[in-house]
Amino acid sequence: MEVAIDLTKAFGYDPGLGEGQMWFNLSFFDADNFEDATNDYSTSTWVGGETVDGAIIYAFLEAATGTDVEAGTEIPNRIALLGNYPNPFNPTTTLRYALPQAGEVTIQVFDVLGRRVSTLSYGLQAAGLNEATLDAAGLASGVYLYRVQVASQATGAVLASATGRMMLLK
Fold first, then answer.
1. pTM
2. Is 126 in a helix, a strand, or coil?
3. Which of 45, 94, 143, 150 has a CA that sits 20 to 30 A from residue 119's CA?
4. What is the mean pLDDT of each run of 10 residues along the chain (170 residues)?
């Protein structure tokens, strides 16, 4: 998929400033699972941009593991991130994750410089598959990291955490 954005209309750039447009492209490659797991590969997504001087890759997103379309009922032995959808997103996305035990869930969002830009509390959630909606309307386009943490309801001690990545495109 390729999209051209007229910067003069979309963002009010002066007509004589630079090229006046920006090109974005998105390439999505499917994942396959083989009998011999060493031959498996995950879904990957390239997000790029193009200028008069040539193509520039802005980001490469690759899933750490593949996931089934149907939700499982198994309780993992550690927190498992099942990705977010849609990804890239604008401005909301749904984060899917599986918890090893029940607890208070907090999701922190960080920019690529490691600065925390958002902290969201989702309260007590059960062990197993869970979802949370993230609204990033106040954030700029870019790659972000998110950390899902589950803490003990009684003590507040962190029981498990995992970090994933996502891309916001406005």
1. 0.57
2. coil
3. 45
4. 69 68 59 57 54 53 46 74 91 93 94 92 91 93 94 88 92
